[in-house]
Amino acid sequence: MLIHETEVADTFAEAFAMWAARLVITAETADWAMAAAQSVTGFATSIIGCKCEAGVEALLLPGQTPDGRPGVSVLLFAMNEEGLGKRLVERVGQCVMTCPSTACYDGLPVEPKVPVGSQLRFFGDRYQISKLLGERRLWRIPVMDGEFLVDDRFGIQPAVGGGNILILGRDQRATLRAAGAAVAAMRGTPGTILPFPGGVVRSGSKTTSRYKFLHASTNDAFCPTLRPMAPATQVGAEMGSVLEIVIDGLDLAAVETAMHRGMQAAAAAGALRISAGNYGGGLGQYQIQLHSLLERAPA
Amino acid sequence: MSLALTLHTAPAVPLEADVISPARFAGLSPLEAAKLIVVHGNQSAELGEFFRVSGVANGEIDLTGDLSHVKLIGAGMAQGRIVVHGPVGMHVGAGMTGGEIIVEGDAGDWVGPEMAGGRIIVKGNAGHLVGSASRGSAAGLQGGEIVVFGNAGNEVGGGMRRGLIAIGGNAGDFTGVNMLAGTVVVLGQLGARTGAGMVRGTIVSMHPAEMIPTFSYACTYRPVFLRLYLSHLRTLGLPVSDAAMEGSYQRWCGDAVELNRGEVLMLEPATTTTSPGAPQA
Predict the structure, then answer these.
(1) What is the domain partition of chain A in residue ranges?
(2) pTM of the model as a whole
(3) If you count residue pairs, one on A and one on B, with CB atoms under 8 Å apart, how many are there?
(4) Which of A8, A89, B75, B264 could join B94 via S-S bond, C-beta 3.0 to 4.6 A?
């Protein structure tokens, strides 16, 4: 299959069932909200080494936030409910509560819910104040710049992680251009994040290693420098660089929408081939076939 | 179509009509509803002796007439809707746990005493003791919301334990007296002795007020939680100004004779410059 002159491999992306939460972070200014968002999503590229994956979903205008201040929505993903609950408390406590003027709200009106504010309230040392507005319980935690306001509990839901596309290009610059175009097209897809730096990962991995102490190692099939020696190389002779974009989403449809947009944009920007990473279909709960995704109506 | 009750005979003395509640009318025809018992002074009577009843009992009740001597309307209701097209007497919504009561006129004393849920909206003025505890009770409002678009009398939110009371006009003396928790917002002026005996809870005023000596000034700041409350009150139709949304509030902590964990938040006028020391209330 071709998009423009870009070959799309007849393969699938293997994605995984995860759990997700959405934080709505507001602050006195958009800059401070983004400072907190960048901090809370730091060191959260892959659950392999970071315990969670997180990223900015969208910028929010004052009219879109609970308190009418500028904000940012952040998505956070983990492998299970318990892990997600712990990461939320850790990250909101260390990265949002610490940031001047912020407040943090639950952005998913779903069940089940995990305690966040109800854990962080103890920082108030018995000076904290609970407020109940309708069914919504909030905690006002006294801090040096006034108060940190946080929802008592945050909704979490089953989600999809590890959707991906691989962009194969002539050289590093050309592949970066194509990947950048793909990221620009994919960013802002509602319900998704791209957890890696700039949305792109250059060190894609496979789930095996020759070292007993490692669970993952370099994806040699897509390493151009290993083309003559990798047992199952996927890199053509004319290809000098491969970049991967990983997508986590609140549901499969959101991940597929982002992948669709990304493939179209990468092809338009001159990618030689588009492929996807999978583990033979034996690990993940979802298989996103690239060809059938592209054959559906554009997102 | 709702169940319509139209007052055709004004009660000579107060009429206790706690039967006027959606659950009490459920499944009844207008004729059956008219036979429900009310208490007129010290005598039992039938509802139909005072009201013409028509329509269908579908969970909504429309009341028409000068009901300023009719008490306990909606008492204990758990669901449904009552609209009073006119004034209403004392104890409207007493102990209610859900549903909504809208009074298009004035309400007497004791609006929503010890209610635990639901919402009461009074488009006119209310008397004393809005959302207050009964004399001898440990707590007043236990939950729900009371919104009075006009003025209210003394002891608004006395002993309240939870919930939200909002007064669009002025409130009388002893607002939040012996308050345990919850939030009272007054868009107009406060009377004297605000917060006396309060343990916890929040009283918000859009105007300066004289604080009793057992309250201490803490700081002037912009409480974020208040923006959510004021936005909510705006959606209910109260005229919350942009100045109130964006402004700075003096925080007064008290009552020191109790736990000292209560607070009175007073909107600082926009033209006032805050001096380094404690401001004059």
Answers:
(1) 2-14+160-295, 19-157
(2) 0.93
(3) 40
(4) B75
